Amino acid sequence: MKSFILGSLLAVAVSAIPMPAPTPPGIPSASTAKSQLASLTVKAAVDDGSYSRDLFPTWETKEGTCNTREYVLKRDGTNVQVNDACTATSGSWFSPYDGATWTAASDVDIDHMVPLKNAWISGANAWTTARRQQFANDIDHPQLWAVTDNVNQAKSDKSPDQWKPPLASFYCTYARAWVSVKSTYDLTITSAEKSALSSMLNTC
Q1: Separate counts of helices (H) and strands (E) for the chain
Q2: Is 112 strand, coil or helix?
Q3: Residue 187 to residue 123: CA distance in whole angstroms
Q4: Domain GmrSD restriction endonucleases C-terminal spans what residues (predicted)?
Q5: How far is 158 from 160, CA to CA, in rounded Å?
Q6: Does the residue 178 lie in any domain?
Q7: Which has the least CB within 10 A, 6, 55, 91, 196?
Protein backbone atom coordinates (compact mmCIF):
# COMPACT_ATOMS: atom_id res chain seq x y z
CA MET A 1 0.00 0.00 0.00
CA LYS A 2 2.81 2.39 0.94
CA SER A 3 4.60 1.83 -2.38
CA PHE A 4 1.32 2.43 -4.25
CA ILE A 5 0.75 5.73 -2.40
CA LEU A 6 4.33 6.86 -2.98
CA GLY A 7 4.05 5.95 -6.65
CA SER A 8 0.80 7.90 -6.94
CA LEU A 9 2.32 10.93 -5.24
CA LEU A 10 5.34 10.76 -7.54
CA ALA A 11 3.07 10.59 -10.60
CA VAL A 12 1.15 13.65 -9.41
CA ALA A 13 4.40 15.52 -8.72
CA VAL A 14 5.80 14.72 -12.14
CA SER A 15 2.60 15.73 -13.90
CA ALA A 16 2.64 19.03 -12.01
CA ILE A 17 6.09 19.94 -13.28
CA PRO A 18 5.68 22.57 -16.03
CA MET A 19 6.80 21.44 -19.44
CA PRO A 20 9.67 23.47 -20.95
CA ALA A 21 8.63 26.12 -23.42
CA PRO A 22 9.41 25.30 -27.04
CA THR A 23 12.30 27.19 -28.52
CA PRO A 24 12.00 27.94 -32.23
CA PRO A 25 15.42 28.63 -33.75
CA GLY A 26 17.13 31.98 -33.78
CA ILE A 27 16.00 33.55 -30.50
CA PRO A 28 18.76 36.07 -29.65
CA SER A 29 20.15 36.83 -26.22
CA ALA A 30 18.64 39.78 -24.38
CA SER A 31 21.72 41.90 -25.04
CA THR A 32 21.62 41.13 -28.77
CA ALA A 33 17.89 41.86 -28.88
CA LYS A 34 18.46 45.21 -27.18
CA SER A 35 21.09 46.08 -29.80
CA GLN A 36 18.74 44.99 -32.60
CA LEU A 37 15.91 47.05 -31.10
CA ALA A 38 18.10 50.14 -31.02
CA SER A 39 18.86 49.66 -34.73
CA LEU A 40 15.27 49.32 -35.91
CA THR A 41 13.69 52.26 -37.74
CA VAL A 42 11.03 53.97 -35.66
CA LYS A 43 8.18 55.06 -37.91
CA ALA A 44 4.42 55.41 -37.71
CA ALA A 45 2.61 52.36 -39.06
CA VAL A 46 1.01 52.93 -42.45
CA ASP A 47 -2.24 51.05 -43.07
CA ASP A 48 -3.08 51.53 -46.74
CA GLY A 49 -6.26 49.49 -46.39
CA SER A 50 -5.18 46.89 -48.91
CA TYR A 51 -3.97 44.17 -46.52
CA SER A 52 -5.25 40.66 -47.17
CA ARG A 53 -4.05 37.42 -45.60
CA ASP A 54 -4.03 35.96 -49.11
CA LEU A 55 -1.07 38.22 -49.87
CA PHE A 56 0.97 36.02 -47.48
CA PRO A 57 0.53 32.48 -48.88
CA THR A 58 0.32 29.82 -46.13
CA TRP A 59 0.92 26.96 -45.53
CA GLU A 60 3.61 25.63 -47.90
CA THR A 61 4.98 22.08 -47.98
CA LYS A 62 8.00 21.84 -45.71
CA GLU A 63 8.98 18.22 -45.19
CA GLY A 64 7.56 15.20 -46.98
CA THR A 65 3.79 15.63 -46.87
CA CYS A 66 3.99 18.10 -43.96
CA ASN A 67 3.03 21.71 -44.50
CA THR A 68 4.29 24.54 -42.30
CA ARG A 69 1.58 24.14 -39.66
CA GLU A 70 2.13 20.42 -39.40
CA TYR A 71 5.90 20.89 -39.27
CA VAL A 72 5.62 23.28 -36.32
CA LEU A 73 3.16 21.00 -34.51
CA LYS A 74 5.72 18.19 -34.78
CA ARG A 75 8.61 20.47 -33.82
CA ASP A 76 6.98 22.02 -30.77
CA GLY A 77 4.92 19.07 -29.54
CA THR A 78 5.75 16.12 -27.31
CA ASN A 79 5.30 12.51 -28.50
CA VAL A 80 3.52 13.72 -31.62
CA GLN A 81 2.21 10.97 -33.88
CA VAL A 82 1.04 11.75 -37.42
CA ASN A 83 -0.73 9.82 -40.15
CA ASP A 84 0.38 9.46 -43.77
CA ALA A 85 -1.01 12.91 -44.56
CA CYS A 86 1.09 14.35 -41.69
CA THR A 87 -2.03 15.20 -39.67
CA ALA A 88 -1.28 14.97 -35.94
CA THR A 89 -3.28 12.10 -34.44
CA SER A 90 -1.88 12.33 -30.90
CA GLY A 91 0.62 14.24 -28.80
CA SER A 92 0.69 17.17 -26.41
CA TRP A 93 1.50 20.82 -26.89
CA PHE A 94 2.61 23.33 -24.26
CA SER A 95 1.60 26.91 -25.07
CA PRO A 96 4.32 29.24 -23.74
CA TYR A 97 2.06 32.28 -24.01
CA ASP A 98 -0.34 31.08 -21.31
CA GLY A 99 1.17 27.92 -19.82
CA ALA A 100 -1.64 25.62 -21.00
CA THR A 101 -1.04 22.09 -22.29
CA TRP A 102 -3.27 20.60 -24.99
CA THR A 103 -3.63 17.05 -26.27
CA ALA A 104 -5.69 17.87 -29.38
CA ALA A 105 -4.00 19.61 -32.29
CA SER A 106 -7.30 21.37 -33.02
CA ASP A 107 -6.80 23.39 -29.80
CA VAL A 108 -3.49 24.71 -31.07
CA ASP A 109 -2.87 27.55 -33.50
CA ILE A 110 0.41 28.38 -35.19
CA ASP A 111 1.00 32.01 -34.29
CA HIS A 112 3.06 34.38 -36.38
CA MET A 113 5.17 36.14 -33.76
CA VAL A 114 5.00 39.30 -35.88
CA PRO A 115 1.45 39.11 -37.26
CA LEU A 116 1.02 39.29 -41.00
CA LYS A 117 -0.95 42.53 -40.92
CA ASN A 118 1.57 44.11 -38.56
CA ALA A 119 4.27 43.20 -41.05
CA TRP A 120 2.16 44.70 -43.84
CA ILE A 121 1.82 48.08 -42.11
CA SER A 122 5.49 48.14 -41.15
CA GLY A 123 7.04 47.51 -44.56
CA ALA A 124 5.84 44.20 -46.03
CA ASN A 125 3.37 46.00 -48.31
CA ALA A 126 6.37 46.78 -50.51
CA TRP A 127 7.58 43.16 -50.66
CA THR A 128 7.14 40.65 -53.44
CA THR A 129 4.67 37.82 -52.91
CA ALA A 130 7.61 35.42 -52.67
CA ARG A 131 9.09 37.44 -49.81
CA ARG A 132 5.75 37.52 -47.99
CA GLN A 133 5.40 33.76 -48.45
CA GLN A 134 8.86 33.26 -46.96
CA PHE A 135 7.87 35.42 -43.98
CA ALA A 136 4.58 33.58 -43.42
CA ASN A 137 6.27 30.15 -43.46
CA ASP A 138 9.60 30.97 -41.79
CA ILE A 139 10.81 28.04 -39.68
CA ASP A 140 14.42 29.28 -39.54
CA HIS A 141 13.72 32.24 -37.26
CA PRO A 142 11.50 32.63 -34.13
CA GLN A 143 8.45 33.61 -36.17
CA LEU A 144 6.16 30.56 -35.77
CA TRP A 145 4.89 29.31 -32.39
CA ALA A 146 2.39 26.60 -31.40
CA VAL A 147 0.03 28.26 -28.91
CA THR A 148 -3.48 28.03 -27.46
CA ASP A 149 -5.93 28.91 -30.23
CA ASN A 150 -8.04 31.47 -28.36
CA VAL A 151 -4.91 33.19 -27.03
CA ASN A 152 -3.68 33.54 -30.59
CA GLN A 153 -7.07 34.91 -31.59
CA ALA A 154 -6.95 37.44 -28.73
CA LYS A 155 -3.55 38.59 -29.95
CA SER A 156 -4.81 38.91 -33.54
CA ASP A 157 -2.64 41.49 -35.36
CA LYS A 158 -1.69 43.47 -32.24
CA SER A 159 1.84 44.70 -31.47
CA PRO A 160 3.39 44.41 -27.96
CA ASP A 161 2.11 47.85 -26.91
CA GLN A 162 -1.42 46.58 -27.58
CA TRP A 163 -1.17 42.96 -26.40
CA LYS A 164 1.19 40.89 -24.28
CA PRO A 165 1.20 37.16 -23.45
CA PRO A 166 -0.88 36.22 -20.37
CA LEU A 167 2.30 34.86 -18.74
CA ALA A 168 4.51 37.77 -17.67
CA SER A 169 7.35 35.26 -17.25
CA PHE A 170 7.35 34.90 -21.05
CA TYR A 171 7.76 38.62 -21.75
CA CYS A 172 11.53 38.32 -22.12
CA THR A 173 11.42 35.54 -24.70
CA TYR A 174 8.47 37.13 -26.51
CA ALA A 175 10.26 40.46 -26.91
CA ARG A 176 13.52 38.80 -27.98
CA ALA A 177 11.69 36.83 -30.66
CA TRP A 178 9.63 39.81 -31.86
CA VAL A 179 12.68 42.06 -32.18
CA SER A 180 14.64 39.35 -33.96
CA VAL A 181 11.94 38.88 -36.61
CA LYS A 182 11.56 42.62 -37.18
CA SER A 183 15.34 42.93 -37.47
CA THR A 184 15.67 39.96 -39.83
CA TYR A 185 13.06 41.37 -42.19
CA ASP A 186 14.02 45.03 -41.78
CA LEU A 187 10.54 46.01 -40.62
CA THR A 188 9.83 49.28 -38.84
CA ILE A 189 8.43 49.75 -35.34
CA THR A 190 6.31 52.48 -33.80
CA SER A 191 7.51 54.51 -30.82
CA ALA A 192 4.89 52.85 -28.59
CA GLU A 193 5.98 49.42 -29.81
CA LYS A 194 9.63 50.23 -29.08
CA SER A 195 8.79 51.40 -25.57
CA ALA A 196 6.80 48.24 -24.83
CA LEU A 197 9.55 45.99 -26.19
CA SER A 198 12.19 47.81 -24.18
CA SER A 199 10.19 47.31 -20.99
CA MET A 200 9.69 43.63 -21.78
CA LEU A 201 13.39 43.16 -22.46
CA ASN A 202 14.13 44.70 -19.08
CA THR A 203 12.42 41.69 -17.48
CA CYS A 204 15.14 39.38 -18.84
Answers
A1: 8, 7
A2: strand
A3: 5
A4: 98-198
A5: 7
A6: yes
A7: 6
